[in-house]
Amino acid sequence: MNLKKLIAVMVCVLILVTSLAGCGEKKNESKEAEPKKTVQDTPKDEAETPAKEIDKTITMYASAAIAETEGFIAFNKAFEEDTGFKVEVNVIPGSGPEQYAKIDISLMAGEQVDIIRLDNSNVQYKYGSSGLLYPLNDLIKSNNYEAEQIHGEYLDWYDGNLYYLPTEVSLSCVLYNKQIFDDANVPYPDGSWTWDEYIETAKKLNNPSKRIYGSLMQTWEYYLYTLARQQKVSGYKADGTSNYDDPAFANSLRWFGELSSVHEIQPSWLEMKASNIGWDSFMSGTYGMTFIGGWHLGIMNSPDYQKDWKWGITAPPTNPEGNNNFGSVQALAINKNAKNPEGAFEYVAYAAKEQYKYRKITPARIDVSKEDLEVVFGDVADKSDGSVTVENIYKAFVDNGLGFTSEKIVGVAASEYNSIILKEGELYLVGEQSLEDTIAKIKQQADLAIVNADQ
User: Fold this and answer.
1) Does this chain's domain 57-170+328-378 share its CATH topology with 171-327+391-454?
2) Distance between CA 14 and CA 51 in Å, rounded?
């Protein structure tokens, strides 16, 4: 090879080597130029977000009367063991209106206590319509809690919102003295009956020579509008004024008065007052039947009342216009300013399903089974000396085809409204006032109380 060719080959080789080296350098530059991602540089959806810390402490208000009961203490312990939460109870001295007046002050001051017990329908309405409670709709949805399927007609809605869940309900029933039935050779009631049949049964039980009345009802305001409540006739018109001029209320008051004045199956109003015939007078053994709340079962086997007769239980009678039972619901709500609303809802939902097992009160659920009532009333049946079975109690409260309605008028100025009904209704029942005047005065005074409450 001559010198010129050799030089040309060497130049070509040198160019090729340089070109290959340059390509390798570019690859390395490309890798080094791409910076490593850090947590700070990573977009939020790519970064690893730390789990939200769950507050496992919840607080609640409870009256001293509730907080010291065995059932309340046992339920809270079971909830803590089952969920890992810690329940701190803020005990409120007093009971009834006094208790809630103190809670009102705390809530309006922005107190962050999580849970509030609402012990009756008027308290539930007061808080449910006050803006002081945490709306539960979103919590119900996020927790997949099937409120309507579980509680049905025990729920109360306020402009489409739920502000509390019902936990327990005291339903009404008819308790009867089997000895008086046996002596009169009258069959025991089976629970499928009307008020006309109740009256006819009571007449057969009357025995003036032994001072026995066939029936006993109390001097409480809701007895004066029993028939209207069974029809679910509202105490309020659509415009918010009193609805007591609805004929159902006059009919109900007349009917109640005639139980003694016409049918003579129970003591008159004056006799009830003069003889101090009270809520536990059925235990005297001189009344064939009493229409009363199921809470009365608590004393039926009590050694404090000496009796040598057996007793029975059945569902309350109805009438063609209304076939509902009465009751008083207890509920739990969450404070609007709750520190831990999510944890509070866990407690409220748990209580709505399980609390009845510890407090021995019928659960406010539409799916109540005989087994559920075995938990609540098993001891009552066992200690009744053969008087009743859980099956009897189940048919009286649940398996009877009846609907449900609050035993009292509930709404604006309800406490004043019910007091007016009792005051004016008494004047009619003792013969000092006509039915027409009584209804007119209740309507007039209730309207004034509603207006004053709205101001």
Assistant:
1) yes
2) 61
List all residues 6 or more positions away from 15 whose beta carbon is below 8 Å from its beta carbon.
none
pLDDT tens figures, 247-291: 999 999 999 999 999 999 999 999 999 999 999 999 999 999 999
**Interatomic CA distance for residues 333 and 131, integer angstroms:** 12
Identify which of 121, 93, 164 has the alpha carbon closest to the alpha carbon of residue 336.
164
The residue type found at 273 is K
pLDDT tens profile 93-113: 887 888 999 999 999 999 999
The b/e string for 78-90 (b: 16+ C-beta within 10 A; e otherwise) is ebeeeeebebebb
Q: Which token pair is 363? A: 């659960």
List b or e across 149-185, with b for residues whose CB sees 16 or more CB atoms inside 10 angstroms.
ebbeebbbebeeebbbbbbbbbbbbbbbbeebbeebe
Q: Taking Cα atoms as reference points, which of 121, 172, 167, 173 lies closest to residue 357?
A: 167
Alpha-carbon distances, residue 196 vs 189, 193, 232, 249 (angstroms): 13, 8, 19, 18
- Binning pLDDT at 50, 70 and 90, where does residue 127 land? very high
Among 2, 425, 386, 383, smallest CA distance to 253 is for 425
Q: What is the CATH number of domain 171-327+391-454?
A: 3.40.190.10
Task: Name 62's bridge partners.
Answer: 91
Six-digit token string for 86: 């810690």
Residues in the chain: 455
- The CA–CA distances, whole Å, from 220 to 56, 217, 267, 306 equal 44, 9, 14, 26
Q: Can you tell me the distance from the alpha carbon of 225 to that of 223, in angstroms, rounded to the nearest whole number?
A: 5
Q: At 138, is the secondary structure helix, strand, or coil?
A: helix
Residue 313 has pLDDT above 90, yes or no: yes
**In the block, which residue shows the tokens 């997949």?**
144
What distance separates the 2 farthest-apart alpha carbons in the chain?
Answer: 155
In one-letter notation, the amino acid at residue 80 is E
Strand partners, 233: none
Neighbours of 95 (CB within 10 A): 13
For residue 358, what are its two tokens?
């510890």
Extents of the domains making up the chain:
57-170+328-378, 171-327+391-454
- 57-170+328-378 sits in which CATH class? alpha beta
Token code pair at residue 48: 């690893």
